[in-house]
Amino acid sequence: MSLDAEILDLQRTLYNSRNPTRRWLHTSRRDTIIDAVRKCALRGVRSRALEVGFGSGVYLSTLAEHFEQVVGSDVELTYFDHSKPLALNYPNVSLVYDDITRTKLPRSSFDVVLCTEVVEHIPDSTVALANMHDLLKPGGTLVLSTPQPYCPLEIAAKIALLPGIINMVKLIYQEPIFETGHINLMSSQKVVGQLERAGFTIRESFKSGMYVPLIAEFASQRGLQLEKWLEGKLKRGPLDWLLWTQYYIADT
């Protein structure tokens, strides 16, 4: 299996993982994003939506069902081959090769921009967010998510990928494990600063996703129940930086 095929296999595995915590972290994030997209569609104009970095195409069908026209952009060619069948099923979806830091897409042409788990892979997210603002029509909305830098999951991921440890992690999970590629993890203060400098007004922000090392790997459903309880206690409190994902709904 090629590396590109393995990466796609990994993305599929995350939503169907045998590990309850791993599965919950990804499916709950997916469901949160889908709910945010639906709310955007109900709240405003449903003409055109853009997904920056559509990846394996998890959100394209939801966007297609709620907007008249959908553009998915990415810089990884593997994802285009993977998502072509989905685009054929939805005539209102078009896929384009575009680097958001040097975008060629027309300015002020989208009602909603979705960008989930992308900016942490971009060295200069300031430029990327400024371009997303420019691509939105006046009154348009950005739905953004990105991991938090000091949460237990990101720290554990760095340790898990160390030589000598990664093979043990693969043995525990019995599923694909790869380097995250996160080169630009930002605190919530930094994300807010970049959004505001780009010209956005943040309408809503929140965090989710509790991971407890070893409990997640070995306590199965009981461990997941503990993590869900902890997430509920930490949300919107001073320790919410321990949660994995930060979300922003921001308007132009």
Give a structural overview.
The structure is a single chain. This protein is α/β, with parallel strands linked by helices and 252 residues long. It has one domain: Rossmann fold. Helices cover 45% and strands 20% of the residues. It contains ten helices and seven strands. It has a seven-stranded mixed sheet with strand order 3-2-1-4-5-7-6, sandwiched between helices. Helix 5 (125-135) links the parallel strand 4 and strand 5. It is globular.
- Return the string of H and E elements: HHEHEHEEHEHHHEHHE
Which regions are unreliable across 5 or more consecutive residues at pLDDT < 50? Answer: none
Helix content: 40-55%
Q: Count the strands?
A: 7
Count of separate DSSP helical elements = 10
CATH class equals: Alpha Beta
For this structure, the CATH topology is Rossmann fold
Shape annotation: globular
Cα separation of the termini: 43 Å
What structural class results from the helix and strand content?
Answer: alpha/beta
Strand proportion, as a percent range, falls in 15-25%
Strand order of the largest sheet: 3-2-1-4-5-7-6
CATH superfamily: Vaccinia Virus protein VP39
CATH architecture assignment: 3-Layer(aba) Sandwich
How many structural domains in the coordinates?
A: 1
Main β-sheet, in a few words?
A: 7 strands, mixed
User: Mean pLDDT score, rounded?
Assistant: 90
